[in-house]
Design a protein that fits this description.
By secondary structure, the chain is of the alpha/beta class. The chain has a single domain, classed as Aldolase class I (TIM Barrel, Alpha-Beta Barrel), CATH 3.20.20. About 45% of the residues lie in helices and about 15% in strands. It has an 8-stranded parallel β-barrel, surrounded by 4 helices. Helix 8 packs parallel to helix 9 and helix 10 runs antiparallel to helix 12. The radius of gyration is 18 Å and the shape is globular. The model has no long low-confidence stretch (mean pLDDT about 95).
Length: about 300
């Protein structure tokens, strides 16, 4: 790091009403609260935000909320998550009128997985009207870049940064070396390893529990920024206990658990998700989250 505090960005969850409609008021309240607690930025439409399940109209409504929150020094990323290159470009064109800072671009998986990942990135980034963060998530898309491909991808003039969710120490260190040479923003996406990434010199984090942890993760970043690795490690260990309570130890309820915790804090009105396998949060998980929120009122205050 270059002497500036590490950045803390959240891949935000999307609130819905009990009827499954977008809850715009809850989004506005919760996202503004996150900024007020110390978040440096938000990413909308990612996996945590159920991006693949959102309609175009839902994206439009959330984009208007983001426009209201846009402010100097705050980063707002729109994740271009779609099953094909054409669908990604359609999203980009539809949302281009808004005030977001940058795009976040993951590779599509399945049948949309690019045969030439670097060329795929180049084509989309070249069409972009603003900077692009590459969202590296090989576990989701099935694309693992070679070092030569990384160097080519990072050479694009629109490339502003990387959200690295590879979950591998080797990838983390190789990217750190390239970041030191080239100067892009390197953000850790693996919530279990934020302290390690910041100790290596990463510029910050972009994490899925960032909205709920809008006090926790800035505390971790502050400890790392002042060089107190012991304090950063201790907060990281505490955070892992939070993950167990909120996500479940098997990480099955990675979205519904966070939404329920945000309901307990008074930020969301419903924990409804659009995913069939997370529509019903077991009572045991609810009790674990209730206990967590009550025990750590300093991290999870009532809004």
């Amino acid at each position: 790091m270059s002497g500036t505090p590490p950045l803390v960005l959240a891949a935000v969850v999307t609130p819905f009403t009990e009827q499954g409609r977008l809850d715009v008021d809850a989004a506005r309240k919760a996202y503004a609260w996150g900024f007020a607690q110390g978040l440096d930025g938000l990413m909308l439409y990612g996996n945590m935000g159920e991006g693949p399940l959102l309609t175009g109209a839902m994206r439009d409504e959330l984009a208007l909320v983001a426009d209201e929150l846009a402010a100097p020094g705050k980063r707002i990323l729109f994740c271009l998550q779609a099953p094909s290159e054409n669908a990604i470009l359609e999203q980009m064109d539809r949302l281009a009128r808004h005030k977001h800072t940058a795009w976040s671009l993951p590779f599509p998986g399945g049948m949309g997985r690019p045969a030439d990942p670097v060329a795929f990135f180049d084509r989309i980034a070249s069409r972009s009207d603003r900077p692009v963060f590459f969202y590296n998530n090989p576990g989701a898309c099935g694309v693992t870049l070679s070092l030569a491909q990384w160097r080519d991808l990072l050479a694009h003039p629109k490339l502003a940064g990387v959200k690295n969710s590879a979950g591998q120490m080797r990838a983390r260190k190789e990217l750190q070396r390239m970041r030191d040479e080239r100067g892009f923003l390197l953000l850790e996406g693996d919530e279990w390893a934020v302290d390690e990434a910041l100790a290596l010199g990463h510029d910050g984090m972009l994490v899925g529990l960032g909205l709920l942890g809008a006090r926790l993760f800035p505390a971790l970043a502050a400890a790392a920024g002042r060089g107190d690795r012991v304090a950063a490690r201790n907060i990281q260990m505490d955070a892992i206990g939070v993950f167990h309570a909120v996500y479940g130890e098997d990480v099955r309820f990675w979205c519904a658990g966070q939404k329920y915790a945000l309901v307990r804090m008074g930020l969301f009105r419903s924990s409804v998700t659009l995913m069939d396998d997370q529509r019903s949060l077991p009572d045991a998980n609810r009790r674990a989250i209730d206990e967590l929120v009550d025990r750590h009122a300093d991290w999870f205050p009532k809004a």
